[in-house]
Design goal:
Chain lengths: 189, 323
């Protein structure tokens, strides 16, 4: 079995090469007998949660970690598995905090609560906009944008989607980006 | 500040990778320029849409991995079973090596070979790979690996004496060992088609990558290969298609075809050249008898390139074969 260091895995995720991205994901997620996932589920069960909750938290943690690595916010400051597990624990406690009501009228806390509610509503509204924008985007646009975001070149996208040539893919991408922009503008009006 | 620079700055702002000074400057501009502020908001939403598309794809892949995860009791059983198989293989290897070492010391009745060890260790002995040298005779099957790597055994034109039956058997067993190592290092694909969002537009029904993938998922390797071969013939410059086809041939055990397909891809300036080189190396290892030089040349190239993402695997492979 091939082994990769954390630095190699980060480079593979940031490389833009879909094969390497898949390989890195496979290695981190299912490597060592799904060790990270098992640790997260064990943590959730210890905190009184169900294994399914642990699995959901695990998926969310991987998604956040992958995004941070891709955006360059995580560069290997800590071990990758510790980083992902740390995110999962934070997500768990964040979820518990939102689910359990806060009792008492502490003046300091009220300010924090109001800000949290406002942020929560704003975040919720944005999520709805994103969801509606994705639904409104034509199917072929979702396909071509997904491949473009994963690092496929236009030539490779045209091969995968059976476009006539690279130019057709480029035109599709430009039109789809414009379509997405128009959709987002319309939601903001 | 030109438009490209502003766009790049906004992207870095949205990713949170601006320095404090740069962030302060940009936020000051945003507070004074409504158009710029609108642009940042739109790009923020576009990035969130992009992140959401990637997140959905990632979630789907993780669900598929979860389906392949063995149950806890099955996992423990599988580990124990693996240990049992490895122990059995180790015992068999030791027994075979001991038997071969024993049979190699017996003089053959068919050839005029030296009858005792002293003669075998004389200078210019046919068993001595270096003229005038005096290397010890192989004491075990493992030493045979080192002997096999010398030109006098596998390079038939230089061997003055034909290999004995036991040597032929040893060579065959070592080549089989190389084949097993290459197969162990090979990583099969999860899916042939990466597009998992929506339907692929099929111009020729029954002849697309998705169709090949469906056969592949069912284990119908040769049907998948037939479709991919057609696609590769239609698109001779499509590196990704050829890489997938090469790996399919490897999985099917047709290593000669795998080499023929992967060689051109490995020499192109393409995103897939690195992966093609690695799989080509493994194919050469399986066909070591006829591709020894190619294997060594490619291995040294990969080891000499620390940026190659299989660099560590290549070193590990090289170390494993030296042992």
């Amino acid at each position: 079995m091939t082994t990769f260091t954390d630095q190699q895995l980060i480079a593979m995720i940031q490389s833009g090469d879909p094969l390497r991205w898949n390989q890195a994901l496979d290695y981190v997620y299912s490597g060592n007998d799904f060790r990270i996932k098992r640790q997260i589920i064990y943590y959730a069960k210890k905190q009184g949660g169900a294994p399914e909750d642990g699995q959901d938290i695990c998926h969310d943690a991987f998604i956040i970690a992958e995004k941070n690595i891709r955006d360059g916010r995580f560069r290997g400051q800590s071990r990758l598995d510790s980083y992902i597990i740390g995110i999962a624990k934070w997500l768990w406690w964040n979820k518990q905090r939102k689910q359990k009501p806060i009792l008492g009228l502490d003046l300091e806390l009220s300010g924090i609560i109001e800000k949290s509610v406002e942020e929560f509503l704003l975040e919720k509204e944005q999520k709805e906009i994103i969801e509606q924008a994705i639904q409104a985007l034509p199917e072929h646009c979702r396909e071509v944008m997904a491949l473009n975001l994963k690092g496929y070149s236009n030539t490779e996208i045209s091969e995968t989607l059976n476009h006539q040539n690279k130019k057709q893919t480029e035109n599709n991408l430009t039109r789809c980006r414009q379509a997405l922009r128009e959709i987002l503008k319309s939601f903001r009006l | 500040m030109n438009q490209d620079h502003i766009s790049h700055l906004i992207q870095r702002y949205l990713k949170g990778t601006l320095s404090d000074t740069e962030k302060g400057d940009l936020e000051h501009r945003l507070s004074q320029d409504a158009g710029l502020s609108e642009e940042v908001e739109l790009q923020r939403l576009e990035k969130q849409v992009a992140d959401e598309l990637i997140a959905r794809n990632l979630r789907e892949k993780m669900r598929k991995f979860d389906q392949q995860e063995p149950p806890v009791s099955g996992r423990r059983f599988f580990k124990g079973f693996k240990l049992l198989i490895l122990t059995g293989l180790a015992i068999v290897t030791i027994v075979v090596s001991w038997w071969l070492a024993g049979s190699n010391n017996k003089p053959s009745e068919q050839h005029d070979w030296p009858q005792d060890l002293d003669m075998l260790q004389q200078p210019n002995s046919p068993f001595d790979p270096e003229p005038g040298g005096s290397k010890p005779l192989p004491k075990s099957g493992i030493d045979i690996v080192r002997l096999l790597d010398t030109p006098n055994v596998l390079a038939k034109e230089k061997t003055t004496l034909p290999p004995s039956k036991s040597e032929k058997q040893a060579i065959a067993e070592e080549l089989e060992a190389y084949r097993q190592i290459a197969v162990a290092y090979f990583e099969p694909m999860n899916r042939l088609a990466e597009s998992s969002m929506g339907e692929e537009r099929i111009e020729k029904p029954g002849n697309s990558v998705l169709d090949a993938d469906q056969y592949y998922q069912k284990g119908e390797l040769y049907k998948a290969i037939a479709i991919m071969q057609n696609l590769a013939d239609e698109k001779p410059d499509a590196s990704r298609l050829h890489l997938i086809l090469g790996k399919l041939y490897f999985e099917a055990g047709d290593f000669a075809k795998a080499i023929a397909i992967l060689q051109p891809v490995s020499e192109r300036n393409s995103l897939y050249a690195s992966e093609a080189r690695w799989n080509l190396l493994l194919s050469y290892l399986v066909r070591y008898e006829s591709h020894q030089k190619d294997y060594k040349m490619l291995l040294s190239k990969i080891i000499a390139d620390p940026r190659h993402f299989r660099h560590d695997s290549a070193i590990a492979l090289s170390e494993k074969l030296k042992r």
